[in-house]
Amino acid sequence: MARIVLSLEYCGAAFEGWQTQRHGRTVQDCLTLAVDTIAGESVQLQCAGRTDTGVHAAVQIAHFDTQAERPASAWVRGVNAHLPDGVAVNWAQEVAEDFHARFSALGRRYRYVLLNRPVRSALLHGRVGWFHAPLDIDAMQAAMQYLLGEHNFSSFRAAQCQANSPVRVLREASVTQVGPWFVFDFAANAFLHHMIRNMVGALVYVGKGACSPEWLGELLAMRNRRRAPPTFMPDGLYLSGVEYPDRWNLPDGGRIIAPLFLPSGL
User: Fold this and answer.
1) pLDDT per residue over 122-145, tens digit each?
2) In whole angstroms, what is the distance from residue 12 CA to residue 51 CA?
3) 52 is catalytic
4) 206 and 233 co-located in one domain
5) Virtual CA dihedral for 77, 78, 84, 85, nearest 10 degrees?
6) What residues make up the domain containing 91?
7) Domain of residue 39, CATH code
8) 265 falls within a domain
9) This model's pTM is above 0.90
10) Quick check: is 260 in a domain?
């Protein structure tokens, strides 16, 4: 029995998230079917981070166990031949049996790409978020400082979140602007369900002048999701990196951070 780890990317616009569903319209469902075809047997896939409906992955890590003996090229080109256009495996590698795509990860990174102009984008529909009113980057940058560190993130946790604890360590939080584009980057040991989309929604409230930067710290301390703004759209959210200990000898020393598509050369 061999344990194989895959690195893949996908556009989430055509899928109802990662997690398998009876109707089969998820990334896990189509990837499992493709891997089963190459392996000649049924496999069980585990991933580094479950993404929601409409959320993308510039890099997702998954593993499975198989009795099939195949070269790495079969797990890449062979599997890709059976995948829809919106999903692609980038590399495959055999790892020790105690590796786990989710539980071996030290941290995860997400990026949210937001278009800020009066008119939504037609060409990038489903690929970027959008907000019509002007945003103040200085106010949002000041507000993000309240999110850094170890906190109870209940104010940004979805009601259906299944995590045992709402406490997370947010190691990085930044926002940059180039023209009408705002790019939010977050890195943490792990994230709660809808946590990033809820934080982006709150930051947009600050950016449009509805709330002060200090309000974000107050909202965090409230630990009450009902006091926070609505969950922001999934379109601009990308899983952009997963980090593992060096002992696994994964590409880039386990710090797997994908070059991410950014509009207009950003």
Assistant:
1) 999 999 999 999 999 999 999 999
2) 8
3) yes
4) yes
5) 10
6) 2-104
7) 3.30.70.580
8) no
9) yes
10) no
Q: Is the pLDDT of residue 265 over 50?
A: no
Answer with the one of 89, 104, 119 that is the final residue of a domain: 104
140 and 223 assigned to the same domain: yes
Least Cα distance to 130 among 119, 115, 140, 118 occurs for 115
Is the predicted pLDDT of residue 264 greater than 60, yes or no? no
Instruction: Using the predicted structure, report yes or no on whether residue 266 has a pLDDT greater than 50.
Output: no
Q: Are 204 and 229 spatial neighbours (Cβ–Cβ below 8 Å)?
A: yes
Residue 238 marked ligand-binding:
no
Condensed to tens digits (0 to 9), the pLDDT of residues 191-217 reads 999 999 999 999 999 999 999 999 999
Q: What is the pLDDT of residues 80-108, one digit of tens each?
A: 999 999 999 999 999 999 999 999 999 99
Q: Are residues 120 and 216 in the same domain?
A: yes
Q: Rounded to whole angstroms, how far apart are CA atoms 238 and 215?
A: 26
Classify residue 258: in a domain, yes or no.
Answer: no
* Residue pLDDT, tens place only, 146-194: 999 999 999 999 988 888 999 999 999 999 998 999 999 999 999 999 9
Determine the pLDDT at residue 202: 97
Question: Is there a domain that residue 247 lies in?
Answer: no
Q: Which of 29, 52, 98, 138 is catalytic?
A: 52
Q: Quick check: 146 and 217 in contact, CB under 8 A?
A: yes
Same domain for 100 and 130, yes or no, is no
For residues 43 and 17, state if they share a domain: yes
Count of structural domains within the chain: 2
Query: In terms of Cα–Cα distance, which of 89, 95, 107 is closest to 48?
Result: 107
E strand spans, 85-236 = 87-95, 107-116, 129-131, 149-152, 167-178, 181-188
Buried b / exposed e over 210-237, threshold 16 CB at 10 Å, is: ebebeebeebbeeeebeebbebbbbbbb
